[in-house]
Amino acid sequence: MPVTRLDASQHSVTRDRVDANALDVVTTLKEAGYEALLVGGCVRDLLLGATPKDFDVATNATPEDVRKLFRRTRLVGRRFRIAHVRYERDIIEVSTFRKSSSQLEEGDRHANADGMILRDNVYGTLDEDAFRRDFTINALYYDPQEEEILDFVGGLDDLDERVLRFIGDSRERLQEDPVRLLRAIRFQAKLGFSLDQSILDAANLASERLAAVPPARLFDEFTKLFLSGFATEAWSLVKDSPVRGSLFPATPAQNRFAELAMINTDQRIDEGRPITPGFLIAVLLWHDFEARIHDLETHHNLNDARLAAAQETLLSQREVIAIPRRYSQFANEVWLLQSRLEHRRGRQIKRILSHPRFRAAYDFLLLRAESELADPELARWWTRIQDLDSEGVQGMIDTLPRDARRKRRRRRRRSKSTS
Ligand code: ATP
Ligand code: MG
C-alpha cells in the first residue's frame, strides 16, 4: 500500500492542539538528527476532533539514545522496551520504530508455542513501525513540524468508516497478542466504532488465549476498560461476550448491579470525583462472595464464613487478574461492612460512621438497593443518619427495632461469661 501524505491544508489537525511536552520531545529528537513523529491514539483522537488522553512519540532513536538526550528518562518494559521522558506533570512515551513479527527473520522471533509474542524489540524503519501496530486507525503519524499526516495502512479510510480493523490477518494478530481483543473492545466502547467481521470471527479463540496472558497485564487492561469514562458501554459489550467468562469467570452476565456500578463509575469520572478499581472488583465479585458464604456457612459460624468467603473469592479471581493488594483489601472491607450496615447494632453505629471505608460501603449499599440486592429502606436509613449531629444520630439509634439492640446485649453478656 503506498503511503498517503496529507499536508496541513488536507487535514484538521493543528500544531497548537499538541501537548507542549510532546512537541518538545519531537523537536529535541529532530535537532539531534533523529526522525520523530506523534503516533497512535493521539493522532487518531485529534483527527476525530477529540482531546487525546496522552501523546506518544515514535522515533528511530533507540531507548538508550533517548535517555542520553533527556535528563529525566526511564527505560521501562521487558516485552516491549520504551523510554518514558518525564516532565513536571506528565510522561511522554517514546517508542523506537519496530518491525512487526511477520517482518522478522525466524531467529529474531520470540514467541511461545501458541504464537504469542514474548518480546518485541527488533528495531525497524518508520514504515515497518506502522505495520507492527494493532489497528489501522492506531497507526497514523503526525509530523508536527511539517504539519503532515502519514498513513501507511489505510487508517484514514477506516477512521471515515468508523471501523476497527487489524493491520494484517485478525487471527494472526490476536494470536500474537490476545490482549488486542480487549483493546478492540476498549476502542469500540470509547469511540463507538464497529469491529471488522474478522475480529468477531476470531473472538472466541482469542478469549480463550487470554488465560495465557500475565495476570498483571490483564489488571492494567481491566482498569483501562472500566475506569476511563466509558465503562457502561464497555460492560454492555463484555457481558455477553466470551471475554466476560475469561476475565471474570464467576461474574453473571445478567447483572443489574454491575450495570449500575458502571453507570455510577462513568458519572463519577465525569464529575471529577475519585474512583478506585477496588469498588468495581467488589461489585463484580459480589455474587460469588455471597454464594461462597452460603456454602461455607454449614461448617463455620456466619462471621468466619464471611471472612473465609472473602479470601476465597479474591484468591480465585487473582488467578486471572492480578489485583494489587490495596484494591483486594478495599473490596474485602466493603464486603465485610455490608453486614454491619445490615445488622445495625446501636453501639457500633458511630464507629461505622467514622470507618475509613464507610463512604464506599454506603455507596455500595445504595447500588445494591437499587439492584434489588438490599432493602431500600435500610439504604435510606443510612442516608438520613449521615446528615445529623450526634444528638440526631443517637435519636435514630434509639428508634432502632428493639430486637436488634437486645441481641447485641445478649451476645455481650454471653461473651463475658465465657471469657
Ligand atoms: P489511548 O487513547 O487509550 O491512549 P492508544 O491507541 O494511544 O489509546 P496506547 O495503549 O497508548 O493506545 O498505545 C499507543 C499505540 O501503541 C497504539 O495506538 C498502537 O499503535 C500501539 N500499540 C499499543 N498496544 C499495542 C499492541 N498490543 N499491539 C500492537 N500495537 C499496540
Ligand atoms: Mg496512548
What can you see in these coordinates?
There is one protein chain. This protein has helices spanning 20-31, 41-47, 63-69, 126-132, 155-161, 170-176, 179-191, 197-209, 215-226, 231-238, 242-247, 256-270, 277-284, 286-296, 302-318, 325-342, 349-353, 358-370, 376-385, 390-398, 402-418, and strands at 4-6, 36-39, 56-59, 73-76, 82-86, 91-96, 110-111, 117-119, 140-143, 148-151, 163-164, 194-195. Mean pLDDT is 92; it is low at 408-419. It is α+β, with helices and mostly antiparallel strands and 419 residues long. The longest helix is centred in the last third of the chain and has 18 residues, at 325-342. α7 (179-191) packs parallel to α9 (215-226), α10 (231-238) runs antiparallel to α12 (256-270) and α15 packs antiparallel against α16 (325-342). β4 (73-76) and β5 form a beta hairpin. It folds into 3 domains: 1-161, Beta Polymerase, domain 2 (2-Layer Sandwich), CATH 3.30.460.10; 167-209, no CATH class; 214-405, cca-adding enzyme, domain 2 (Orthogonal Bundle), CATH 1.10.3090.10. Strands 1-10-9-2-3-6-5-4 form an 8-stranded mixed β-sheet, with helices on both faces. It is built from 21 helices and 12 strands. It binds adenosine-5'-triphosphate (ATP) and magnesium ion. The site of magnesium ion has 4 residues, from loops.
